[in-house]
Every structure is written in structure tokens, then in C-alpha cells.
Write a structure and sequence with these properties.
membrane; 478 residues; mainly alpha; 1% strand
């Protein structure tokens, strides 16, 4: 079996899925309009995905992860559990309408972008001609040693640019899979980079750090066409489910020990007692929910990581608050633009955690908590700022900006390997980055991609050459 990125969903497939969702949801007691809107969301998502060109393009990746992690995955699980889609929501009909309207604007943006984007991407000429082992070693050196030698005044800027340890996974895995027609992916350098990122994430209790290495491997391997047997695929799926069910509670509980003198000892203890850690996590979650005025959950019973892999119930709360007169202004979007300006040029730019502000509005945080930032989706963010006017008059142009810039810079994975960077980035930010992803992704992160591409192709090979052995020269037999 060869795993690869889908580039198009057949209309018959989309209609069948939409029909199954509608009938199943209605049969389980969902309001008929909500069930119908759930089906139309599937169709609109598929049309937008096809128009973007599939998962091989950054724009297609944004649409894919937004549709799946915004609503699709949670909706499928609700149906499989026999729960109505409108249970535990504040205003299911309105939220489904907002999601459908949002995906419609994305479809329009993808349609225009398909005509405007560059046929030959800007980074098409930034080719990797050196040995991949040298490039990977150079990326590891820059990613690990760089923060230690960069002046403190430039440390914040370098942290934004420093994705080189991830590059040491993405590029070698992609190259190795291409060379072997998907039969092999890892080499010792990419495996070492994966180990470093994962261990560092474990020691710092960073959920993103724990999983980003594995996600980077999966993205690169599938983009290149990974060949895997059914048994191995089943084992990988089981490992992923078990790891997420253990490591997600670990990261949440472990954050309480950040800054403690015995941080490493606490990390080891939590890892050695996974069931105890998970039970403590469930207990703390239930206790925290009982103290809140209105705990937000979609499923009748906690589903662990799945509760965090769907944005719809949180977005529903914000949409409901908006319809009850608590809306914002375009100043929210203005701060997104201001925060995209480098700190060196705008040192006094506003630093507002809008996720924190919105969470207070929906009753998710205690009044004194002004540091915790909660994630929301782009549709609820746009609706909260200006309701339907912003949804239909401003949001489409913001999506178009993101799609045009990202697709024009890297093109598809068939054109440049640099598109992998956007795909990995959108796997996290598309469903939960609010509308700020359209600004940050088309400006600051694009600078990160361009800077990374030139550094990887020009500087990393020179550094890698210092510590790698030359390939043996084959001698001709006489």
C-alpha cells in the first residue's frame, strides 16, 4: 500500500459521505437543519479542497486541516458514538451556518487563487544539490548550536526563524522516500533529529514539541509516497493512539512543574507512571470543569485527545456569545497586522492575547487568568469581529492573501520540497490559529520559509561538510 497526499476527492465520494452524515445524524436525533448543514459542509470542504489542488499545495493543506480538525473528525466521532450533533452546543444551527459560510468564502478564495498564483513558484530555483546527509547535519547544528551563540538581542528573532531541527527531519525523510520509491524513510541523522526534538519536548512538557517530530516524519513520508504494509500501518495507528493518550495528559500535568528544581525527576516519574498520570489528568479536568460557569465539551463523555482535535464546540460558544451582543471590532484584525511587524521596527506593538480575551467572554477562564490563551477557529473569530459583513466582505480577501502568497512561494510538493514547511505549519494553525494565521502565515512565516530555504541550500551544506566524512571514491578495475 502506498500512502500519498490526495489531490482530489471525486464528487460521487463527497455526495456519498454527505448523504451518510445527513441520514445518520438525523436518525440519531439531530435537528434536520443541523444534519443538512453538516452534509453541505462536507461538500463545500471537498469542493474547496479540489479547487486548491489538493494536499500537495499549501492552500489545500490549510483547507484540509481546517475541515478535518475544525468539524469533520469530531462530527464523525459523534455519529459513531450515537450522539446527536446538536447536543452540548449553545446554538448548533447558527454555528453550522457560520461554518458553511466560512467554507464558502474559502472556496471563493481558492477559485480566484487558482487563476492568480504563480505557475513557477519563487523558490523553484532554490534547489538542493548537495549531499542530503551534509544538509541534515548542518540543519541539526544550526538548530541546536544556534540558540547558544546568537546574541541575546537577536534571540527572539532567531527563535522565530529556527525551524532547522525540523528541517533535519522533513528534507532527509522526503529525499529518502523519493530515492527508494517509498520503501524507506529514516536515516540516522533524521532519526537523531526526531529523538532530540521529542526528548526536548518531553523534558519541557511541550505538547507541540512532543508530537512535531512525528508529524514532520508523517508529512514528509506521505508527500513522497510512503509504501507500507497493512500490518505495519495498523501497528503505527495503534502506537499513535496509545502515545497520544499517554503523552497528552503527561504534557498537561507536567506544565505544573515548569521552573521547578526537580523538573527532570518529575518528568521521569510521570513517564514511568502513565496510568496514574492519566487518572490525575482526568480528575483535574473534571474538577476544573465543575468550577466553571459553563464547561465546554461536545461529547457526552470525555474522549481524551479527541476533545482537543475539534474546534467546533469552542467556536460554537464564541458564535453564541456574539449573537447575544458581545462582539468585537476590526481592531482585532489590525493587531494581527501590527504583530506581524518585526519587533525591531515596532517595539511598542500591542501584545493582546485575543484567545484569552475570547475565552473570558465564553466563560472558560477565571476572571484573574490573563495568561492562558485558548485556541479558536478562523470562522468564529471572523464572525465575532463583524458577523456576516466580515465573513463575506473581509475574510475572503484574507484567505486569498494567504493562499496566493504561500502557493506562489513554494508551489506544490511536486515542484519544491519547501511546500512541506507550510503543510506542517498548517496542520497546527489552520484549525486553531484564528484569522491571525492568514496574516502571520503570509508574512512572518513566509519570511521563515524563504530564510530557511536559502540557509538550508547555501549554509547548512558547508557546516555539514565539516563533520561528515566524504563519500568513498570508487576505483575503476583494470
Amino acid at each position: 500500500m502506498k500512502l500519498s497526499f490526495p489531490t482530489r476527492f471525486p464528487p460521487a465520494y463527497m455526495l456519498t459521505c454527505a448523504g451518510i452524515i445527513f441520514v445518520a445524524a438525523w436518525a440519531e436525533g439531530t435537528d434536520i437543519l443541523v444534519a443538512l448543514l453538516a452534509g453541505t459542509f462536507v461538500i463545500l470542504s471537498g469542493l474547496a479542497f479540489n479547487m486548491a489542488g489538493g494536499l500537495v499545495y499549501p492552500s489545500g493543506a490549510y483547507i484540509f486541516f481546517l475541515a478535518i480538525l475544525g468539524l469533520g473528525l469530531g462530527m464523525a466521532v459523534k455519529i459513531l458514538l450515537g450522539e446527536s450533533l446538536d447536543s452540548n452546543l449553545r446554538d448548533a444551527q447558527q454555528s453550522m451556518l457560520v461554518y458553511n459560510a466560512g467554507m464558502l468564502t474559502i472556496y471563493a478564495a481558492a477559485t480566484v487563487n487558482r487563476r492568480l498564483r504563480r505557475r513557477r513558484p519563487l523558490l523553484a530555483n532554490v534547489l538542493i544539490k548537495e549531499r542530503m546527509d551534509r544538509i541534515a547535519v548542518g540543519c541539526v547544528l544550526i538548530g541546536i548550536v544556534g540558540p547558544l551563540v546568537v546574541p541575546e538581542s537577536a534571540a527572539a528573532t532567531f527563535r522565530q526563524l529556527n525551524n532547522f531541527a525540523v528541517f533535519a527531519i522533513l528534507l532527509p525523510v522526503y529525499s529518502r522516500a523519493k530515492e527508494t520509491d517509498g520503501a524507506s524513510t529514516f536515516n540516522w541523522i533524521s532519526f537523531a533529529a526526531w529523538g532530540y526534538i521529542t526528548v526536548f519536548g518531553l523534558l519541557t512538557f511541550s505538547k507541540q514539541g512532543i508530537f512535531v517530530g512525528s508529524i514532520a516524519w508523517a508529512v514528509a513520508a506521505c508527500a513522497a509516497g510512503y509504501r507500507v504494509g497493512k500490518l505495519r500501518l495498523f501497528v503505527l495507528a495503534i502506537v499513535a493512539v496509545v502515545a497520544s493518550s499517554i503523552l497528552t495528559p503527561y504534557s498537561q500535568i507536567g506544565r505544573q512543574f515548569r521552573g521547578a528544581a526537580d523538573l527532570n525527576e518529575q518528568a521521569i516519574y510521570l513517564l514511568e507512571h502513565p496510568l496514574e498520570t492519566r487518572n490525575l489528568y482526568v480528575l483535574q479536568t473534571e474538577l476544573a470543569d465543575s468550577k466553571k460557569k459553563s464547561a465546554i465539551h461536545w461529547f457526552e463523555h470525555s474522549q481524551g485527545l479527541l476533545d482537543r482535535l475539534t474546534m467546533f464546540p469552542i467556536d460554537d460558544a464564541l458564535i453564541s456569545v456574539t449573537d447575544h451582543g458581545h462582539s468585537r471590532t476590526l481592531y482585532v484584525f489590525a493587531t494581527y497586522v501590527m504583530n506581524a511587524v518585526p519587533h525591531i521596527f515596532y517595539p511598542d506593538k500591542p501584545n493582546i492575547l485575543w484567545g484569552n480575551e475570547f475565552a473570558h467572554e465564553v466563560g472558560m477562564l477565571s476572571p484573574g487568568d490573563h495568561t492562558t490563551s485558548i485556541s479558536f477557529g478562523p470562522f468564529s473569530d471572523a464572525y465575532h469581529v463583524g458577523q456576516w459583513k466580515v465573513m463575506f466582505l473581509i475574510a475572503p480577501f484574507m484567505f486569498l492573501l494567504l493562499f496566493f502568497v504561500t502557493d506562489s512561494v513554494t508551489g506544490s510538493t511536486d515542484q519544491t520540497a519547501w511546500a512541506l514547511l507550510y503543510i506542517l505549519y498548517f496542520s497546527h494553525t489552520a484549525p486553531e490559529g484564528m484569522m491571525s494565521t492568514t496574516i502571520y502565515g503570509s508574512s512572518t512565516y513566509t519570511i521563515v520559509v524563504i530564510f530557511g530555504a536559502f540557509t538550508v541550500s547555501r549554509i547548512a551544506p558547508l557546516l555539514g561538510q565539516l563533520v561528515t566524512l566524504p563519500k568513498p571514491v570508487a576505483t575503476a578495475r583494470s
